[in-house]
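Message: Just now I want nothing more than another pair of eyes on a protein record. I am handing you a single protein, as its sequence and its fold in token form. As I understand it, each token names a local backbone shape. Take your time, and here it is.
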Amino acid sequence: MSGPIIVGVDGSPTARKAAEKARALAIKLNAPLHVVSAYADDRTEVVSSGSDQWVVSDADNARYIAEKVAETLKAPEAEILPRSVHGKPADALIGYAEKVDADIIVVGNQRMRGVSRVLGSVANSVSHNATCDVYIANTYAD
């Protein structure tokens, strides 16, 4: 395998399950795993507490999520890289996968049942538009 595996995360338990499956796949295929969190807006906010002030942005929050998930996935036999990418989740994952010449995008199957399935989901959009293979991880099972 020559290209990396990409997994989309948003801090949810189902995305975490997809990330765990992506790590197992990356280890089996000896491929780097890019843990990607997307942010649609590039808003910044100043947060104050007493005399302290922090500037917080959507990009920072996405990077924080990717780093935290990547940290929990650490394994000696896996190369895991956290990334944050601007754009709507499906578009961001597809664009990033093309940029790094990924072999596989892993997404969870959250919202692929019922009415949401008809209206769309990240997994649905990625599976129909990605230029690489897509693995849809079953995140409903325990």
Q: What stands out?
A: The two ends are 29 Å apart (CA to CA). The domain at 5-137 is CATH 3.40.50.620 (Rossmann fold).
